[in-house]
Amino acid sequence: MNTYLEKRDTSISTLSDEKKKLIQARILVLTQMVAEYERKGFKNCKAVVEAHREKQELKAEETRIRYFEKYPNYLYLTDEEFNDVLKRNNLVVSEVERYVGDIPASCWEAIKNEKVDEEDLFKYYEYEDIPTRHSTEVGKGGLVSDIFLSNVNRVAKSFLTRNNNKVGLKIACPRELLRRETSNLSLDPIVFRYLKDGGVLVITFWK
Fold it and tell me: Which range marks the domain in which residue 135 is found?
């Protein structure tokens, strides 16, 4: 299995509170700098683009630290790292109900006893839950055009598809294990959850 899953990155535990404060202070400096440029209309200059990129990297590091501390028994992977695991090992993501293979006892215990806060997970939405769907008027008595409503509905449905596909417990495994049970595979499944702030939390994986 990919090296990302071989061991938890314990180097994160050496980060002090001071280090986290430095990250937050740097994000604040970058935010203020971008605001100054944008007030003068320079929204796409090199300094602004680079500042946005650095902020994203710092926020990603903040997220990694937060999940490391909050879930010491699980493995956090960024979207990029997880996609690399899938690609390198030729795994596909699916609902756990489609999995037909065996589940080792130790992995089942981890799945059965998993504890992940709902606030960190994607929430399932119905079409009626999308606020923009109800925006059928503009101003006082002004009706929204059919084209506008069509675009709103398209965006709402796209959101539902992207969001709801990330709700619930997922499994990444060889495609064969979604069709038939076999013991001839060298690659083992990964059980995980998508996190609302990006990345995945690996609950367990077959070893």
Answer: 127-164
Beta strands in 46-160 (DSSP E): 75-77, 92-95, 137-138, 142-143
- Tell me the per-residue pLDDT of 124-181, one tens digit each, with 9 for 90 and over: 766 655 555 444 444 444 444 445 445 556 666 666 667 778 889 999 998 888 876 5
Tally of domains within the chain = 2
- pTM here is 0.70
Q: Are residues 107 and 14 in the same domain?
A: yes
56-61's contacts with Cβ under 8 Å and 24+ in sequence apart are: 58/23, 58/26, 58/27, 58/30, 59/27, 60/198, 61/23
In the DSSP assignment, the letter for residue 198 is S
Looking at the fold, whether 156 and 174 belong to one and the same domain comes out as no
